[in-house]
């Protein structure tokens, strides 16, 4: 095959690929016109392009955070976590509940139900503590550490082997020359964000 012929075929495939992309809607599904176009107008190399595009944008069992969600899991219930620790902001449990629900809604297609979900999470914030940390050889400055611990009971109503009841903790350090009230509003959001991600990965990512 001559170089001119190869260039011509390459142009045809790339051009057809562009037209295929315009025919593709909703994560790889094709319109009726798109199907007719493929059957009657496309060459074999172009069909290969279509398959490649479909593999990239395909639908089916959806995934999140690098995992696949079992198709029989349709809903999740996040029972409002309670505040069982002394200290901490009065709205700490509310902040956590909102973050947990929003994270599930953003990262899955599960319906969020008040109760009776295929997956269910419940629990309490059991510890909100400030403790001194020992300076290291690399860092001689003195720090305090804010640690938040949450006890989580997870129930998978489709597969009880995945149930668990465990605690999750995360912390942030701050200089000892600052009071907790000075840094609390800055430390709490990243602590809760990490706890939410850890709980999500354990409950929804362990498939």
Counted by DSSP, the helix tally is 5
CATH fold title of the largest domain:
Double Stranded RNA Binding Domain
- Report the sheet with the most strands, covering strand number, pairing sense and barrel closure: 6 strands, mixed
What is the average of the pLDDT values?
77
Evaluate the radius of gyration: 26 Å
Structural class: alpha/beta
Give the termini separation.
50 Å
The topology string of helices and strands comes to HEEHHEEEEHEEEEH
| Count of folded domains | 2
In the CATH hierarchy, what is the superfamily of the largest domain? Lipoprotein like domain
Strand content: 25-35%
CATH architecture of the largest domain: 2-Layer Sandwich
Q: What percent of residues adopt helix (DSSP H or I)?
A: 40-55%
Number of DSSP-assigned strands: 10
What is the global morphology?
elongated
Which parts are unreliable, with pLDDT below 50 for 5 consecutive residues or more? Answer: 6-42, 49-67
CATH class wording of the largest domain: Alpha Beta
What do you see in this structure?
The chain is α/β, with parallel strands linked by helices and 207 residues long. It folds into two domains: 3-59, no CATH class; 67-203, Lipoprotein like domain (Double Stranded RNA Binding Domain), CATH 3.30.160. It has five helices and ten strands. The protein has helices spanning 3-23, 32-41, 44-57, 92-107, 180-203; strands at residues 24-25, 29-30, 63-64, 67-68, 75-78, 82-83, 111-113, 119-133, 143-156, 164-175. Strands 5, 6, 7, 8, 9 and 10 form a six-stranded mixed β-sheet that branches. Strands 1-2 form a two-stranded antiparallel ribbon. Strands 3-4 form a two-stranded antiparallel ribbon. A hairpin with a 2-residue loop joins strand 3 and strand 4 (67-68). Helix 1 packs across helix 3 and helix 4 (92-107) runs parallel beside helix 5. Mean pLDDT is 77; it is low at 6-42 and 49-67.
């Amino acid at each position: 095959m001559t170089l001119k012929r190869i260039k011509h075929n390459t142009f045809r495939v790339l051009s057809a690929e562009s037209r295929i992309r315009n025919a593709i809607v909703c994560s790889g599904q094709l319109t009726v016109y798109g199907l007719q176009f493929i059957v009657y107008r496309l060459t074999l190399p172009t069909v290969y392009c279509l398959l490649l595009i479909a593999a990239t944008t395909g639908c089916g069992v959806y995934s999140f955070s690098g995992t696949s969600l079992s198709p029989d899991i349709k809903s999740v219930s996040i029972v409002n976590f309670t505040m069982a620790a002394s200290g901490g902001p009065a709205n700490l449990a509310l902040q956590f509940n909102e973050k947990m629900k929003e994270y599930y809604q953003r990262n899955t297609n599960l319906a969020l139900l008040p109760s009776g979900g295929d997956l269910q999470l419940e629990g309490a914030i059991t510890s909100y503590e400030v403790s001194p940390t020992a300076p290291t050889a690399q860092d001689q400055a003195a720090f305090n550490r804010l640690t938040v611990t949450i006890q989580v009971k997870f129930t998978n109503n489709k597969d009880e082997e995945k149930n668990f009841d465990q605690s999750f903790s995360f912390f942030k350090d701050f200089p000892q020359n600052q009071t907790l009230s000075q840094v609390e509003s800055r430390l709490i959001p990243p602590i809760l964000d990490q706890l939410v991600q850890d709980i999500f990965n354990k409950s929804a990512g362990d498939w």
